[in-house]
Write a structure and sequence with these properties.
The protein starts with a helix and ends in an 18-residue tail after the last strand. With 919 residues, it is α+β, with helices and mostly antiparallel strands. The relative contact order is 0.11. Among the domains are: 207 residues, no CATH class; 192 residues, no CATH class. Helices cover 50% and strands 16% of the residues. The strands form three sheets. Strands 9, 10, 11, 12, 14, 15, 16, 17, 18, 19 and 22 form an eleven-stranded mixed beta sheet that branches. Strands 1, 2, 3, 4, 5, 6, 7, 8 and 13 form a nine-stranded mixed beta sheet that branches. A hairpin with a 2-residue loop joins strand 6 and strand 7. The protein has 31 helices and 22 strands.
């Protein structure tokens, strides 16, 4: 539109106003309105509060960037129905802006105030203005366009009656804006139209458009949301799913040990207590089903016959959380609080031990049920943990219904009345609402799975966790550089095979291989897709274990050979449990478990993506508010940063102290087992195994005395079952003393975490001591720093306002005052110096020796390698007769070390004498 057409429209608009005809601007065209205060007016509106104009002037003089006006009529139910439609949205809401700052806020989401934690509301004022009509209800006879014009003039004139023709002069950077809706290919789009009064009282109105930098910012936020949805599995701590660090079999070599074993259907006949009253260990045969070598040997033994088993090696299954490498100490503040209160380790303290073990229902005579305090509180803490896990989403729902729902619902209603589709606001939560059927289905699914997980058996829980851990671990452990190398090698194959002609061949082949390249890159580079594909592969393997038709095709083999798929297939593995594959019922349960894992993954990723995308917007909008109002917020931001610094200094020193002591304990243990370690380290990695070593007791008097004491302890422990197979938590475990060093195939030494914490509390003056006491002292120190910093803040603000100190000087004063405690501790007090433990001190050695002597722990058995299995012909068999399907036997005087209960096994499996060992 050139200037002549623009002038023609302006002339026609003036003529139409004089003759009572309305011309509406079309599309996104800048419209120029003349001053209409001299035109005949049939309806007048003005503010009932005479102080509004003065309040507006005071707000503008104080540097207010934006003023929001919420107009209210005497007749609140007046919706002006029956009038011609207008593209204006909410005629009773108007905004006055000053400068780019004010108009920039209008480009943000309508709930920018809560997203920025009210930092963007600094410099924004809201007025509720009561409007009166003259004559009464005259707006009923005015068109919507006329009503909009009247309201705009009223706001521009600061709610003063200017019927005389005089208009309030506005600055060039000031605008009066209201929201309009326009049709964008059938979708409702909402934009502000901002009007300003120029020279000669000419009114110019334009759609508010964002500049290039604001567009880049909004696009960046959108891209960040998509990346979060794709990479959300990376937010899960790796310690929860790293299988290579989660459970490992360690070989423990002992002196040849012999135990007497009997397989029987009547274990009570063999349970003869020893002189100390300890019963013989009895284990059901099904407990050994995950120990293939030992189980096969046991099944070959004849029932009711005594055997002597000799073994020198045990494979212990050791979880990573029971071992500590040299560079890690699990003593963080959150970890310590979790262990003490959630896992209820605090009940072991003498001050609360008696109370924790008391029955809650002890004073109630009407019930015989018992429940100790610590069990009750432990269940309560589980509920608290679930609540805290759900709390972020509950807060998100609160923000939606408190600050977003009403406005979005009004816009959806307005769009429906205009027969337009509602626009996508950038979030599924905003588009569908958190109580949509999709969200309700996800809530019900997660609640059902949580309840099911709480009541299912431990073995089923382990299967569920293993499936997820396996997929997450494979996702994290994938060698992505090998994939890039494989892709580059295949892309260069045309040049490798055809030389210079390969450039021409590549122009044809490479575009055809683009889908494969992007699919593989997406699989290895996008964690969400990676885990979903792995779960689908697990689902297919257990659903159809014998179907492998694709791999049997001749063309498939040629393609795999040409593209060298073996490089990638060697990196992948699908673990199939042989026991599950043999049982159709267990296979069906496994398929259902994998399906639940897949659905849960999609549901949780969806909710986490929505939640984190909301948090991203909160962070971005808050940073915008802090930057725009740096002069007001720098002092508080600097104070918060200093608080974080002191928190890290106070609580981080505790972690460093325990980490240093962990290094000391590793050095002590490795020195005492130096010969054994060097012997294994010299081997190549292929010949090495994960090994577990027993630490010898140190000698402070004579070798003979302590060696004799060590042997007496070993013999005594062995006789009492200290070296024995027992069942703990339904798992066969090896009970032994002072196994204190675990060496992996990669020559990484580790020590048991329980031994480490026992060492921290041994009666030596320089050890770290109790972790909760350490953190209590750190909290007291941090509290004193907080008090000092608050005093500094009060002084800075008080004198800053009194003497008009600039924001920069306030910032410098806060930072300078805040670092005074650090300088005192660093150079004068030196309270945070980490002292060295003198391992050569005789007192330290004696205390450590006492800890080692008393250390005893249970280790789950992965398998047992037997060296021999003998049946002693001198052992007397029980006299057995069969009468009425009952076995009658005489009492035995001999004592067994282990009784295998086979009463649950099928009897027909015992009838095949060829399967038994006769010796």
């Amino acid at each position: 539109m050139d200037w002549k057409e623009h002038r023609l429209i302006r002339t026609l608009f003036l003529i139409s106003l004089l003759h009572g005809v309305e011309l509406l601007p079309e599309g996104n065209v800048s419209t120029v309105f003349p001053n209409t205060t001299n035109a005949p007016v049939l309806c007048q509106i003005y503010s009932k509060d005479e102080k509004v104009a003065a309040d507006i002037k005071d707000a503008l003089d104080s540097g207010t960037k934006m003023i929001k006006y919420h107009l209210k009529l005497d007749n609140d139910d007046n919706k002006w129905e029956g009038k011609n439609k207008s593209d204006a949205y909410k005629l009773l809401y108007w905004v006055r802006t000053t400068g780019r700052h004010g108009t920039g806020l209008l480009l943000l989401r309508h709930d920018y105030d809560i997203l920025s934690l009210t930092t963007l509301e600094l410099g924004v004022v809201t007025f509720d203005v009561r409007i009166q009509e003259h004559p009464a209800d005259c707006l009923q006879n005015t068109s919507l366009t006329g009503i909009e014009t009247l309201f705009r003039e009223l706001v521009m004139n600061d709610f003063q009656n200017k019927s005389t023709g005089e208009a309030i002069e506005m600055a060039a950077s000031e605008n009066v804006c209201n929201l309009h809706v326009f049709n964008d290919s059938g979708t409702a789009r909402y934009k502000y139209i901002c009007c300003s009064r120029g020279a000669n009282s000419i009114l110019t109105c334009d759609f508010l458009e964002s500049d290039i930098w604001f567009t880049i910012l909004m696009v960046s936020i959108t891209v960040l949301k998509i990346l979060i949805a794709l990479y959300s599995p990376r937010f899960v701590p790796q310690s929860l799913y790293r299988l290579r660090n989660f459970a490992k079999p360690f070989v423990h070599t002992i002196d040849p040990m012999k135990i007497k074993v009997v397989r029987t259907r009547t274990p009570d006949l063999y349970k003869i207590a020893d002189a100390n009253g300890e019963q013989i260990t009895t284990i059901k045969s099904k407990k050994f089903k995950y120990m293939p070598k030992f189980e096969d040997m046991l099944r070959s033994l004849r029932p009711e016959a005594p055997y002597t088993l000799t073994f020198e090696k045990l494979l212990l299954r050791v979880k990573s959380d029971r071992l500590l490498p040299e560079d890690y100490a699990p003593v963080g503040l959150i970890k310590a609080l979790y262990e003490s209160f959630v896992k209820c380790e605090i009940r072991n303290r003498s001050s609360v031990e008696d109370c924790c073990n008391v029955d809650v229902c002890s004073a109630i005579t009407c019930t015989k049920k018992s429940c100790s305090w610590y069990r009750l509180l432990k269940e309560m803490m589980k509920a608290v943990i679930i609540f805290f896990l759900a709390l972020p989403w509950l807060l998100r729902m609160y923000v939606y219904f408190e600050y977003e729902h009403e406005e979005l619902n009004d816009r959806k209603t307005d769009a429906n009345e205009r027969n337009l589709e509602f626009y996508f606001p950038g979030s599924v939560t905003l588009y569908l609402t958190p109580i949509h059927v999709l969200f309700l289905a996800i809530y019900c699914l997660l609640i059902f799975e949580s309840l099911t997980y709480g009541i299912i058996r431990k073995r089923a829980k382990e299967r569920f966790k293993f499936v997820m851990r396996k997929c997450f671990s494979d996702m994290a452990d994938g060698e992505k550089m090998y994939v890039f190398g494989w892709l580059v090698k295949n892309l260069l194959k045309p040049c490798t095979s055809f030389g210079g002609i390969g450039l021409c061949v590549g122009l044809v082949v490479i575009p055809l291989s683009v889908p494969l390249i992007f699919s593989l890159l997406a699989f290895y580079m996008v964690p969400t897709l990676n885990i979903a594909c792995r779960l689908l592969a697990q689902f297919a393997v257990y659903l159809c274990p014998n179907v492998s038709c694709f791999s049997s095709w001749a063309c498939s083999k040629r393609i795999r050979s040409a593209l060298e798929f073996d490089v990638l297939s060697s990196m992948e593995s699908l673990d199939k449990d042989r026991l599950i594959m043999k049982s159709p019922l267990k296979r069906a349960v496994q398929v259902m478990t994998i399906m639940l894992c897949l659905i849960s993954l999609c549901s949780v990723v969806f909710l986490i993506s929505e939640l984190i995308s909301f948090l991203v917007e909160v962070v971005v909008y808050t940073l915008m508010g802090l930057v725009l109002h740096a002069s007001l917020t720098l002092t508080y931001v600097s104070l918060i940063l200093i608080l974080f610094f002191y928190a890290n200094d106070s609580f981080g020193t505790v972690t460093q102290t325990y980490l240093k002591f962990n290094e000391t304990m590793h050095s002590v243990v490795t020195v005492l087992l130096k010969e054994e370690i060097e012997k294994e380290v010299r081997k190549s990695e292929e010949k090495q195994e994960n090994l577990a070593f027993r630490m010898p007791l140190q000698d402070f008097t004579s070798n003979e005395a302590y060696e004799g004491q060590d042997n007496r302890i070993e013999n005594k422990t062995s006789a009492k079952g200290g070296h024995n197979i027992e069942v703990k938590d339904g798992i066969p475990q090896w009970t032994t003393s002072h196994i204190l060093l675990f060496l992996t195939r990669k020559d990484q030494p580790m020590i048991p975490s329980r031994f480490y914490f026992d060492s921290c509390k041994m009666p030596y003056y320089n050890v770290p001591g109790d972790i909760l006491l350490k953190y209590l002292h750190a909290a007291v120190e941090f509290g004193s720093v907080i008090i000092f910093l608050l005093f500094v803040l009060v002084v800075v603000l008080a004198f800053g306002d009194a003497y008009n100190v600039s924001a920069t000087n306030k910032l410098l004063a806060t930072v300078a005052g805040g670092f005074i405690p650090f300088m005192l501790k660093k150079f004068l007090i030196k309270a945070h110096s980490i002292s060295e433990v003198d391992t050569s001190d005789i007192h330290f050695k004696m205390c450590l020796n006492e800890v080692v002597k008393n250390y005893k722990e249970y280790w789950p058995i992965f398998d047992i390698e037997l060296t021999s299995c003998e049946r002693n012909p001198k052992d007397l068999k029980p006299i057995a007769t069969v009468a009425d399907n009952e076995v009658q036997t005489t009492e035995r005087s001999e004592r067994f070390d282990l009784i295998i209960d086979i009463s649950e096994e099928a009897k027909q499996g015992e009838s095949h004498g060829s399967n038994y060992i006769e010796m």
